[in-house]
Specification:
The two termini are 44 Å apart. This protein is elongated. It is α/β, with parallel strands linked by helices and 936 residues long. It has 35 helices and 31 strands. The chain binds adenosine-5'-diphosphate (ADP). Residues 523-532 have a biased composition (Basic and acidic residues).
Length: 936
């Protein structure tokens, strides 16, 4: 039982584990180790709530009060939004007040000022602010760099004259899991918000909850509309969370006490994450499932019926949390995809760490994304493809059928270079349209920009579909048929038939995802032309009759305007004539500027019959006029422009709705393109790295010929060295457990990890670094292994070693793979050996899983097995070799051969590491003494 395994002492181990080893893993995780990151947001209220935080700011009021009204309002907001940094909109600025201004202004590079809110206010309140348009920059700094939760409080409507009443409300709480379109997000990975529906008894009995009790999980990527649910058990919870790798975790408020105490060992590791408590009481007034999932009520009922109570609770918690944090957006999600515990290869967080799948801890304790499995194999062309790859690596499959499909695609692309090249080239221009479609549904950013990106993505999708269907050899036609690639040509064509030609052709604008606005090009100065004539509109002029009429009328107005101007020009040829330089884009002053001699100006007034009221300014040598005809034509221009703008807005909004009707199909197309991206990238990897297609069998074996570790091989290549391949033949009655001994630095850990990574690669559908691979699906990988760096410095207490080992011994099944590195090294000689023996014997006799067991106790373990009367038929012994060993040199050849190594070459390695010669001599003397004592 996990419960009995971890007692009070373990809490200390885990405390160190959480605060030191994973330091800087991600800002959200660092934040979680501090208390302020764990906060309750139940008091953030929503539009439906009667205490909707619209509040009064009567700044400047002279009413006598004990506290100035602005301060009162700020205090109320602070109470309503505990643990949030408040950014309060005041006119065209966002401001921080009081101690928050003092604390954050220096961090944000802002100046602190004193704001007096009343005439006789002698104290005032500290304030720091920045212009509205810099909101994203400062939110980024607060959330991303300072690990804070930010409440954005916006002003509603205009300040009423004479009343000084300003209404404000919380328009958004920004937390790591509810980011939508922030440019600092890394779109190569998902940004998941995860809700846990924990068993009720945990809140009551804490530690005494049964490890097999179920827990509901729901996780969503708000920026993509992806939604997932799963049911797991308390004991598997942390592995599932590690697999999902959320940016933020939401737990019902009733468990808040539990987190403070952290009494239940299954939840200890939650400290690594950014956790928030949400006052969720099953209240569905905050969300509407039919709208959130864009699904008919009748089918919603049917589909909801298939979910368990825990899944439903977690799902509703995510929706309610989003509704509270982002009261103004109504996201549309895919109906939750259900995951099963037995669907994916399970790995606990430490195994993921040790195998350095997507990140690794460097020698100086920093988290790095380089030299990981992901960074080594990533050859995808799109951001969404990278996200899919990371999802695959996080959750390798158990389903042979699905794996075969992935492998078939890899083979198709590997054997058909041209096809692969064409598709990969085309993928470069698809853009991340899954994000665009979600932004469109959230109403965030510029709709037309998103529409264009979707149109571009869909038309690229159609091209890729054609390439695939036309270019695929006969042999694979069945495969392509079952893939059933969707297309929405009609939608893409429609988008491009509506959007103006100039925008369509200007594709560069739409490839930059971070720019939300389509800027109209700045007009060139030309006095003759109204600058508005050069303005770009977005919709094809002839899209509707109304639009066409408005454009015709506008063109007519511009013509009339030119005629008036030309008429003036011809009648006053001896004067210089221009339209006022003050005229700016969309800001017409409608004046005509004459300059010349005073006599000529007088003559012009006469000739043009300019009335006194039309004269704006008269100086000896200049005249500024605003004639009625001139003004009329200008006002008609203004009204036609605003008519066109409003017609365009209507068209865009209709188009937006039409696109959203197809949101599920668009996302499906996105996923299919991602699938092609990842499988084509595997094909490139397979060719570049000489990989082989693994064969799956129903037997629990792992046969690898000439296996390699891709990441280590890459590292060696860069220094001109070669990797030594090794074979593995695990499984069956005679070789289920390999005991591997050998010198330090001989390549034992590398061999262990290489096999785990080969299994992972095979079970994500990739080919593997070997000349042959045949294997039975692995349900779980267990490791008792330090990462290659000094993680062990903090983790190598004997307690942690034992926690990890007991995890293996309790949970490994006959389908699992256990890789165990130097068990028992954390304690004294004999006892360490005893623990190593007990672990080996249990793996052999009880777990019966495929096991690679690296140890320096090879000979002793073999002897103990014999003395203990155990059947050794499933055990095989291998050792890594030494090429050369002399006084000062030691070269490991990294080749595995049958047998048990008698020496660890510790002294040679110590010499190479620069051990002082006196200490080396001392070690040699000690060896002599020990041998003498043992009668050798
Ligand atoms: P051990 O666990 O036996 O102490 P490691 O697996 O940590 O040894 O390997 C030590 C170093 O040896 C690695 O960092 C790597 O550079 C090199 N090495 C390991 N295995 C191989 C191999 N098969 N071929 C080439 N070099 C290897």
């Amino acid at each position: 039982m996990i419960r009995s395994r971890v007692s009070t002492g373990t809490a200390e181990v885990w405390r160190r584990f959480s605060t030191s080893v994973f330091v800087q893993r991600r800002f959200v995780q660092i934040a979680a180790t501090r208390h302020r990151a764990v906060s309750v947001i139940d008091s953030v209220v929503t539009p439906e709530n009667t205490s909707f935080p619209t509040w009064e700011d009567r700044g400047g009021s002279t009413k006598t009060n004990s506290m100035p009204p602005l301060q009162k309002s700020i205090q109320k907001l602070r109470e309503d939004n505990p643990n949030c940094v408040l950014l309060i909109q005041v006119g065209s600025f966002y401001e921080l007040y009081g101690d928050q201004a003092q604390e954050y202004a220096p961090k944000l590079g802002l100046k602190v000022a004193l704001k007096r809110t009343r005439m006789n206010d002698s104290d005032g309140i500290s304030m720091a602010g920045f212009p509205i348009y810099q909101l994203e920059k400062y939110v980024t700094m607060l959330v991303h760099e300072n690990e804070e939760t930010v409440a954005i409080i916006d002003q509603i409507g205009e300040k009423k004259l004479g009343d000084s009443l300003v209404l404000r409300r919380v328009s958004r709480i920004v937390t790591p899991g509810t980011l939508i379109d922030e440019t600092f997000l890394n779109y190569n990975k998902n940004n998941y918000l995860l809700a846990l529906a924990l068993p009720k008894q945990l809140a009551v009995s804490g530690e005494h909850a049964d490890p097999d009790t179920t827990v509901g999980l729901a996780w969503a990527d708000l920026s993509l509309g992806e939604f997932n649910i799963q049911e797991t058990t308390l004991k598997d919870l942390m592995s599932d969370i590690a697999r999902i790798s959320p940016s933020e975790i939401v737990i019902s408020k009733e468990f808040q006490q539990l987190h403070e105490v952290m009494s239940h060992d299954s939840l200890q590791e939650l400290r690594r994450y950014f956790v928030r408590y949400h006052n969720y009481q099953g209240d569905s007034s905050l969300f509407n499932l039919a709208t959130n999932f864009k699904i008919e009520k009748s089918s919603l009922k049917r589909r909801m019926g298939s979910l368990t109570l825990k899944q439903t609770t977690a799902m509703k918690m995510v929706l309610s949390y989003i509704a509270v944090n982002l009261p103004e957006c109504n996201p549309v999600f895919d109906f939750p995809k259900t995951h099963w515990n037995n669907q994916a290869l399970q790995m606990d967080p430490r195994t993921r760490e040790a195998l350095e799948l997507s990140s690794r801890t460097t020698a100086d304790g920093k988290i790095s994304q380089t030299a990981t499995l992901l960074s080594t194999i990533r050859k995808t062309r799109t951001q969404s493809g990278s996200r899919m790859l990371l999802q695959w690596i996080s959750a390798p499959l158990l389903d042979i059928e699905e794996l075969t499909k992935r492998q078939d695609f890899v083979e198709l692309f590997q054997k058909n270079n041209i096809l692969s090249l064409k598709i990969r080239t085309q993928l470069d221009s698809t853009g991340d349209f899954a994000r665009s479609v979600q932004q469109l549904s959230l109403g965030s950013g510029d709709s037309l920009n998103h529409i264009m990106l979707i149109g571009e993505g869909l038309s690229q999708g159609s091209i890729i579909r054609d390439i695939l269907y036309d270019g695929v050899p006969e042999k694979y036609s069945e495969l392509i048929k079952t893939f059933d690639m969707k297309s929405l040509d009609g939608m893409a064509n429609k988008i491009f038939s509506i959007v103006d030609e100039r925008l369509r052709n200007d594709r560069d604008k739409f490839t930059d995802q971070s720019s939300n606005d389509i800027q109209t090009p700045a007009p060139k100065k030309d006095d003759q032309k109204d600058t508005r004539e050069r303005r770009s509109f977005f919709i094809q002029k002839n899209h509707t009759e109304e639009l066409m009429e408005a454009h015709d009328s506008l063109a007519q107005c511009f013509k009339e305007r030119r005629e008036i101007f030309n008429d003036f020009a011809t009648k006053t040829s001896d004067l210089q004539l221009d339209i006022s330089k003050k005229e700016e884009y969309l800001k017409h002053t409608d004046i005509i500027h004459f300059s010349g001699t005073a006599a000529n100006i007088d003559a012009a007034i006469e000739a043009l019959s300019i009335q006194p009221h039309e004269i704006q300014e008269r100086r000896p040598r200049t005249l500024v006029v605003k004639t009625s005809a001139w003004m009329q034509v200008h006002s008609r221009i203004d009204s036609y422009i605003s008519r066109i703008d409003s017609l365009e807005r209507e068209i865009i909004s209709r188009l937006r709705l039409e696109i959203l009707e197809e949101i599920q199909t668009i996302r499906e197309i996105g996923r299919q393109l991602d699938f092609l991206d990842v499988t084509a990238s595997f094909a490139v990897l397979a060719s570049e790295k000489n990989l082989v297609r693994p064969i799956f069998t129903r037997r629990n074996t792992l046969e690898v010929k000439q296996g390699r570790h891709l990441v280590v091989e890459n590292g060696l290549e860069s220094s001109g060295d070669l990797f030594t391949p090794n074979d593995t033949k695990l499984g069956g009655k005679t070789n289920r457990l390999w005991v591997i001994s050998g010198p330090n630095m001989g390549g034992k850990s590398t061999f262990l990890r290489q096999n785990a990574i080969i299994v992972i690669l095979a079970q994500i559908g990739s080919f593997v670094p070997a000349t042959h691979c045949k294997m039975g699906i692995v349900d779980r990988i267990f490791t008792r292994i330090g990462a290659s760096d000094d993680i062990s410095r903090d983790l190598s207490t004997f307690m942690v070693e034992m926690v990890e080992t007991s995890g293996i011994l309790e949970n490994a099944t006959t389908k699992s793979l256990a890789i165990v590195d130097e068990i028992g090294r954390g304690t004294s000689g004999d006892e360490g050996l005893a623990i190593a023996y007990a672990s080996l014997e249990q793996l052999l006799s009880v777990n019966k899983c495929r096991t690679l067991f690296a140890t320096h106790y090879g000979i002793e373990l073999d002897r103990l097995l014999t003395e203990d009367g155990k059947d050794k038929s499933a055990v095989e012994y291998f050792q890594t070799g030494v090429l050369e060993s002399s006084e000062n040199r030691f070269i490991a050849d990294h080749k595995l051969r049958p047998g048990i190594s008698e020496r660890s070459y510790a002294i040679e390695v110590a010499k190479m590491a620069g051990f002082p010669s006196r200490a080396i001599k001392s070690a040699e003397r000690a060896i002599g003494l020990i041998k003498k004592r043992n009668g050798l």
